[in-house]
Amino acid sequence: MLNRLFARIRKRPHEKERFSLEGNLPAHLAIIMDGNGRWANRRGLPRFAGHHAGMKRMRQVIRDCDELGIPCLTLYAFSTENWKRPQDEVEYLMRLPEEFFASEIDELVERGVRVRFIGDTSKLPQHTQDIVHRTLERTKDSNGMIVNFALNYGGRAEIVSAAKSFAREVAAGTATWDDLTEERFQQHLSTGSLPDPDLVIRTSGEMRLSNFLIWQAAYAEFWFTDVLWPDFTRDVLEQALREFQGRKRRFGGLK
Ligand code: V07
To answer: I want to staple 211 with a disulfide (CB 3.0 to 4.6 A). Which of 19, 128, 155, 229 is the partner?
Structure first.
């Protein structure tokens, strides 16, 4: 799976890389895009302006990751906890996928991006679910980078749902409890056959996992920055990747 992913993405001749990361890139980068509200507050803007700036930054980071050759990118767009926010803010957030789809889908298709979703999308407003389906439909024949949106995602809920899914196999007689291994269980998670994230980035100074990919990130490297998500430039991304490579170089031989 990994080699296939890398082979598909590897070096497009017209795209100059600013530094060589060959062989040392994360196969799966996961990002907690925090600090959009704070970014707006600091500028005296309403919170929704921060979310909008965050969406624009996300678009740029997808491009950056594609150009750098990162095969799989997971973005934590909306957690199961985010429903607790004021209703007008939640409504605004639920409109962002539509705006993103309207402005970005052509470029995503052009880049060959395969869009995936994790999380319980059945609880999203119907108009947001429609966008989810249209996005999947438009990118289903792509074979480039995977962009995985976590929408109404929670790691514990995902594990419970995987446990139920395996239990159903046992109830149906297609498995026995003796068949349950880590590998088998993992297949019931929403990330399915994707590689585990090897680097998790969280912006805005918070140093917690907050129920994000809690099973999958068991062996991940973590990189935290005080930079707020709307200010997460290519330079900051490259800094994270360089530090990731440094850690791999120092510890890789000892494993
Ligand atoms: C959201 C912008 C990014 C920063 C974090 C919170 C706010 C893009 C999407 C999206 C989702 C599905 C899709 C296409 C785009 C999105 C939400 C919030 C809920 F198919 N940004 N973004 N969804 N933010």
So the answer is: 155
User: Ligand 1, atom 6: nearest CA belongs to which residue?
Assistant: 77
2 vs 89, residue with greater confidence: 89
Whether residue 146 has its Cβ less than 6 Å from ligand 1: no
pTM of the model: 0.90
| Dihedral pair phi/psi, residue 17, rounded to 5° | -90, 140
Report the alpha-carbon distance of residue 215 to residue 196 in Å, rounded: 9
**How far from each other are the two terminal CA atoms of the chain, in whole angstroms?**
22
Q: Tell me the CATH number for domain 26-154+196-245.
A: 3.40.1180.10
CB-ligand 1 contact for 97 (6 Å cutoff): yes
Neighbours of 248 (CB within 10 A): 18
Q: What is the arithmetic mean of pLDDT over 159-186?
A: 97
Catalytic residue among 82, 120, 130, 196: 82
Q: Indicate whether residue 51 lines ligand 1 (CB < 6 A).
A: yes
- Does 130 qualify as catalytic in the annotation? no
Task: For a ligand 1 pocket test, name from 55, 131, 138, 228 the mutation site with the most ligand atoms within 8 angstroms of its C-beta.
Answer: 55
For residue 68, count CB atoms less than 10 angstroms from its CB and return exposed for 0-12, middle for 13-18, buried for 19 or more. Answer: buried
Residue 82 known to be catalytic: yes
**pLDDT tens readout for residues 206-254:** 999 999 999 999 999 999 999 999 999 999 999 999 999 999 776 666 5
pLDDT band at 137 (very low <50, low <70, confident <90, very high): very high
Note the pLDDT of residue 227.
98
Q: How far apart are CA 66 and CA 54, in angstroms?
A: 18
**pLDDT (0 to 100) of residue 193:** 87
Say yes or no: CB of residue 33 within 6 Å of ligand 1.
yes
